[in-house]
Amino acid sequence: MLSNPFWDFYWETRLQYLQGQGKGEVILQASRLIRQSSHPMRILEAGCGEAQIIGSLVDAHGSPSGEQTSIGIDRDLNALAVARKNFPSIRFLAGDFTDKALLESQGQFDLLLLVNALHHVFSDAYDPSLGEINVPIGKANVHTSFADLAQTIKPGGYLILFDGLEAAGALDSPIQIRFQNPDAWMKFQTFAREYKPFRIQYQQDVAGKITLSSRDFTSYVTKIIFLGKPLWERERQESYQYFHEDEMRRMLVENDFIIQEYRLLSVDYDHWLQDVDILTPGVEFPPEHVIITAQKKG
Ligand SMILES: C[S@@+](CC[C@H](N)C(=O)[O-])C[C@H]1O[C@@H](n2cnc3c(N)ncnc32)[C@H](O)[C@@H]1O
To answer: pTM to 2 decimals?
Structure first.
């Protein structure tokens, strides 16, 4: 039943501030699936953090109870303490969602949420001897982890995946940019010094104008909003980008999913425009994130 006055009220009073943000889009999309379903959905959120997403969905739409209750998994005990306090009806597991045995012990789910979670698996492949993420290992780890997570979904069940996406085209193609003001240029230099997953390299052409690779440009625009905020310490350790669109689609198809919706989101576009002018003809700001809704073959 798509029309649901309680949901409309819940969204308007509790969540509307998330409208247009990734989390908000995921919650709206998941709520649509739940309202279309003939029975309460059992949800798994891998990397649930403080459970704003799974918590809101279970709060608003309910969940099967007892053994069949919805589950959030996270390795951050502080985040889980908040989640448990705010959403006592959900079972939260402190653990690693890449642990196949842990996943297998929880049974199967109607809906799996992977929201800003898989890029952690990629980023965990940081190799101190390289001084960067070991890309082949990181990608292989994402594939393995995703295949294990996919097994937790019932035939005919759903996946909503939200995460960063590598820009189209070659990662090393050069992009020339001009900073719109001295503050933006200063912030870029701090970003380039402190960002850990990849060494950011750039050539300064004239004052306030630089050339850098497509990969480094995407890293910059997707991370710069965190610089100077408490989240920067954590965000500077992680790369949101691990797959191009074709790799993302292939992973889903290989794991028996039918993609129902594939939508690019660029929630920080206005902010980027204030800081940077792209000088290379034909180059646009990269899509920041992707939200994918897919159904597991029945
Ligand atoms: C960016 S937060 C997203 C939280 C939540 N999905 C949301 O969007 O509000 C990612 C979360 O994944 C958790 N995480 C990352 N890798 C994990 C792993 N291998 N096992 C369990 N949790 C993990 C982190 O601790 C963090 O809380």
So the answer is: 0.95
Q: What CA–CA distance (Å, rounded) separates 226 from 288?
A: 14
For residue 92 and ligand 1, the question of a CB distance below 6 A is answered with no
> Which CATH architecture best describes the domain 4-167+241-267+287-296?
3-Layer(aba) Sandwich (3.40)
Is the separation of the CB atoms in 267 and 21 below 8 Å?
yes
**Of 61, 85, 48, the residue nearest 11 (C-alpha):** 61
**Smallest Cα–Cα separation from 57: which of 116, 15, 118, 120?**
15
Ligand 1 atom closest to 76 (CA): 25
Distance 53 CA to ligand 1 centre (A): 12
Closest ligand 1 atom, residue 115 Cα: 6
Q: 96 CB under 6 A from ligand 1?
A: yes
Would you give per-residue pLDDT tens digits along the chain (298 residues)? 677 889 999 999 999 989 888 999 999 999 999 999 989 999 999 999 999 999 999 999 999 988 889 999 999 999 999 999 999 989 999 999 999 999 999 999 999 999 999 999 999 999 999 999 999 999 999 999 999 999 999 999 999 999 999 988 899 999 999 999 999 999 999 999 999 999 999 999 988 899 999 999 999 999 999 999 999 999 999 999 999 999 999 999 999 999 999 999 887 788 899 999 999 999 999 888 999 999 999 8
